[in-house]
Amino acid sequence: MRVNAGPFRNLPNIEFTVPVIYAKTGMDAINKEFCGIRQPYVARMVEIVRCSFRYVLFISLCLPGLCLAALTPVVPAQQGLRPVANQVTSVYENATITEDVSLRGVVSIKGSLTVAPQATLRIEPGAEIRFTTNKGSRLLPRLVVMGRLHAAGTLDHPIIFTSGSAPPLKKGAWGGILLLSSEKRNQLEHCRIEYAETALEGRFSNFSLKSVAISASVTGLMLHDTTAGVTQSSISGCETGIEAHDSEVDLRDTAIAQNRRGTALYRCAVVMSSVTVAGNSQQGIMAEEGRIKLTSCEVSGNGVGLYIKGGEGQLFMSRFVRNNDTALHLDTSRLKINRCQISENLRDGLKLEDGRATIWGNAFGGNGGYNLVNTGTEIITAVQNWWGAADEKSVKSKIFDANLNGRVGVVQIFPWLLQKPVLIFP
To answer: Is 42 helix (H, G, I), strand (E, B) or coil?
Structure first.
């Protein structure tokens, strides 16, 4: 055979005879057959044969697996389903924690789990806490914290508090979380609380929520003599979003939406900043005998937007729009209302039962009823506002006061703004 091609095309022509190999499979056997050829050329030939041998071996081993993979159908992922992680890692049944404990994975709580005053319960990211009723009992399972609760999930691995009952789940399937005289630094971050009777209840306690979603519960937050800070969170799909009594509440960058009642506040000090209260079928915000301050908020698409009885406070740079009933209803409330938009509500924009509030620098217009209604006998001062028009006839036609009904008080609106003020909302 003449070698003058391939890797040997630049070598001198060499003629030799290659014997047929039948039973020899090792490299030593090949070397022996080529022992009569000059050593450098033999080594080159052996390397070629060795590479070919490895290639054939690789194909023979991998080809069946490649064929199987090609024939296996691809099953698309189903959207909206919770990952299959049903393996319960720990179970607590009517238990009390007396020392610091960390929970991870899927945890089943049967009946109740109580955290003693000296203990801290930590819940790790991605944990799922499932509550189930004891066999033969009608009492709702719950978590009671008298010590400290620290549940800090992450955006990719939130902590879930839910019912362990079989689907379909309904509101009130489990009791919820109760902070009982826990004035320590309770913290929940990147958590979901769902299907509870009262998702989170505080009694003489302190807590902070950040990026917490509460949904499909009878009551989202229930507060009694509690200090609560809520940031970048949401409360939706509940009968009542927040009910608070004699408490201090600070809400920032939070949405309270699609509940029956948004908030019900009794004798509370409440600060809301960049809060959206929308789509609550009865009332967006109801406050009685407290102190309330709204800044850069939106109250829209509710039944009654905001009802305040008694108390004092300020509404500043906020929007009260597209509510299905009266946007603002004030009853014996000392409020300053400034630089707000009150427009496009199906009924009245602002209803006052006395003259304790002061209204200026606001923009009214497009309300289905009156822009302002005086239902009491006192004089109301509402000068320097934009009423949707500049001419006297149009302005007065949307004001309900003694000019239309002699049994109610006068609304002082002159002088009014001749053009709509520039209101810059976030």
So the answer is: helix
In terms of domains, do 304 and 159 share one? no
First to last CA, the chain: 87
d(CA 384, CA 418): 9
327 within some domain: yes
Q: Which two tokens stand for residue 399?
A: 């004001």
Q: 227 with 269, same domain? A: no
Which structure tokens are listed for 148? Answer: 């400290």
Q: Which one-letter amino acid corresponds to residue 40?
A: P
Residue whose token pair is 């879930």: 160
What is the rounded CA–CA span in Å between residue 129 and residue 176?
11
What is the rounded CA–CA span in Å between residue 109 and residue 145?
Answer: 14
Question: Rounded distance, CA 73 to CA 127, Å?
Answer: 33
* Residue 216 within a domain: yes
SS3 324: coil
Cα–Cα distance, 182 to 202 (Å, whole number): 8
Q: Where are the alpha helices (DSSP H) in 37-149?
A: 39-71
Which two structure tokens, joined as six digits, stand for 114?
Answer: 């109580």
CA dist., res. 147 & res. 7, Å (int): 80
State the pairing for strand pair 276-278/298-300: parallel
CB 152 within 8 A of CB 184: no
Report the candidate in 302, 255, 308 with the shortest Cα–Cα distance to residue 286.
308
Q: What is the pLDDT of residues 25-82, one digit of tens each?
A: 444 444 444 444 445 544 555 465 455 545 444 445 554 544 444 434 333 333 333 4
CA–CA–CA angle 231, 237, 243 (5° rounding): 60
DSSP class of residue 386 equals B
Find out whether 285 and 277 touch, Cβ atoms under 8 Å. Answer: yes
Torsion angle of C-alpha atoms 192, 196, 197, 201, degrees rounded to 10: -40
The number of angstroms, rounded, from the C-alpha of 250 to the middle of its chain's C-alpha atoms is 17
71 within some domain = no
What are φ and ψ of residue 44, in 5° steps?
-65, -40
Q: What is the pLDDT of residues 127-169, one digit of tens each?
A: 999 999 998 888 999 999 999 999 999 999 999 999 999 889 9
**Contact criterion met (CB below 8 Å) for 134 and 111:** yes
Strands 101-103 and 128-132 come out as unpaired
How many domains does one find in the chain? Answer: 3
223 and 324 together in one domain: no
Domain interval for residue 316? 260-426
Coil, strand or helix: which one is 336?
strand
How many CB atoms sit inside 10 A of residue 255's CB?
Answer: 19
